[in-house]
Amino acid sequence: MVFDAFEWVAFLGGWYNARTAILIGGLFLFSLRFMFHGNKYNQPPKLAETIPFLSHTIEFATNPEAFLKRALKTMQSLNTDILRIRLGGRQVYLVMGETMTNPLFRPNSRMTARRFIEILTEVMFGPTKKDRARLAADITGRAREPVPGTEHIEDRLWVKWHHLLSEYLSRPKYTNDLARWFFDRFTTRIAELFPLEKPTEMLIWEFLHQHQTECAARAFLGDGIFEAAPDYIDALAEAELAIIPIALGPPRWLNPKPHRARDRWLDINRRYISNALRGYNWAAAPTDGWDPVLGSPYIRELVRWGLNAGDLDIQTIAGMYGQHMSNQNSNSVPATAWTIMNALTCPDSDLLPNLRREAEAALLPDSHPSKSDPGSLFDMPALLGSPWLQATYAETLRLRVTFSIVRDASRDTTIGGFPIKRGAMVQAPIPLAHFNEAAWGVPGHPADEFWPRRHLQSSGMTADGKENLTFAISGQRAGYWFPYGGGPTMCPGRNFAKQEIIGTLAFFLTWFDLEVVGWVLPDGKTPSDREARSGETFAVCRPDRDLKVRLTRKR
Ligand code: HEM
């Protein structure tokens, strides 16, 4: 399966058609917010320009795809991992590879994600004016010790926020519980929808977009929000598509539709949280377990902190309550759909039997497919450590994450020996690294081909004559795979996402006989003459086609 290497290219995502205009215009304005910086000595190579100071911006604004294609080509031909461009008067560096990305991912580094996270936060959880000002005023960083020179600032909201993410979302105990609550709901839903032995047709993306989304949201948020707002998933789906047009697009009066969609969703969350908290008995809330009103410990602790120590407005708290669902929904759900679709349609005939074998080996004895109450499914550590399953997951993220890691230089610094002036922007567009031929291409399998085998290393044969394979993600060079970013803001949902993606693939492979019917257009009916390509995106692009499969639940 060969992908068009530049499907991803609209910089912060493969954003097409009308949205492209909004995105490009927005990026231009976004860049204009910043000061002019330059340094002609010992600078990294610069992308050639016909009109000094202007042509990169014009080129990018009129054809971002061609612009970034040219940037990547230049970087490859000059064998450089850093390139200088200028957007809207701002000095921007495009980087990839270990040497150039490490400074971005180092804690306490001079590279900060603060402004970027602030903008996303503003858009996604719509804090009140007062809370927004408090968040913006906290420039003390996320480490226990404040950034030097900011010791006088006492209102340290970000360090507390960071603590909640690392304690209740990333830590294995809570991640594993979240995954268990998700799979309990998801497998029960499947058992209800797919009777034993009755072949049923299903569209993978459509199905997961509805049911995976809802089951994960219930695991995180509780059931209460779904009773209060039966249209929650629809509202979430619309709000999700509004994030980039709001973050990067023109103001509300020129761009009302995405703002309305985002506001509708925030209103649902706010109404729910205000009502739910009125009668909520904190003393009776489980310490570590799930409860129907506020769901998981992560959400409960977030709300508890917002109300008490954080002293945030209920509107801000409600936004925080709902906001991770757009991370989950925009990223894990399409990543799961791509993983399953890739596994089922990959021309490498070794792939599917090996995936099935590994999934079956990790099934727990009491999780027989004929049970209507599935309970626990897999020995998760064994499943997540299986080489072919990991390789398929890693290869899918390599090809389908379209995000750009964005950092600002908070002080003068260096990257790979090059001086970077305070105020410059450094971007590591994930696809630039993930599609890099020097890092990923091997003879017969270019970087833009889905080929999980590239992540497997052979260490001879086993006693029963099978190849001994281990999973390794380094490619030909280190620092070219970072779908979850890095450093203090590295995605805290990554361990949950990995369980969700690999677990769902393994679940379909072990519980069903699957037969591919074919690719269809978004209407779900008309056959497509091609496989899916990358469509709309936040961090992981959505498929622009769906895969129809016929599945029969096994006894
Ligand atoms: C395949 C799935 C996912 C991908 C590819 C992904 C990717 C990313 C990336 C690239 C970042 C920015 C990292 C940086 O700046 O260095 C990020 C941040 C974040 N992600 Fe994810 N993500 C995924 C799933 C999730 C899930 C399931 C959740 C939670 C439910 C989540 C919650 C977050 C949060 C809260 C942040 C901001 C972290 C902070 O402010 O420190 N993500 N994610």
UniProtKB/TrEMBL annotation:
Pfam families: p450
Gene3D superfamilies: Cytochrome P450
Transmembrane domains' residue ranges: 16-36
Superkingdom of source: Eukaryota
Sample GO molecular function, one term: steroid hydroxylase activity
Annotated InterPro entries: CYP450_sterol_14alpha_dmase, Cyt_P450, Cyt_P450_E_grp-IV, Cyt_P450_sf
Keyword NADP: no
Binding site for heme: C491
Cofactor(s) of this protein: heme
Record keyword Signal present: no
UniProtKB keywords: Heme, Iron, Membrane, Metal-binding, Monooxygenase, Oxidoreductase, Transmembrane, Transmembrane helix
Family per similarity comment: Belongs to the cytochrome P450 family.
Protein name: Cytochrome P450
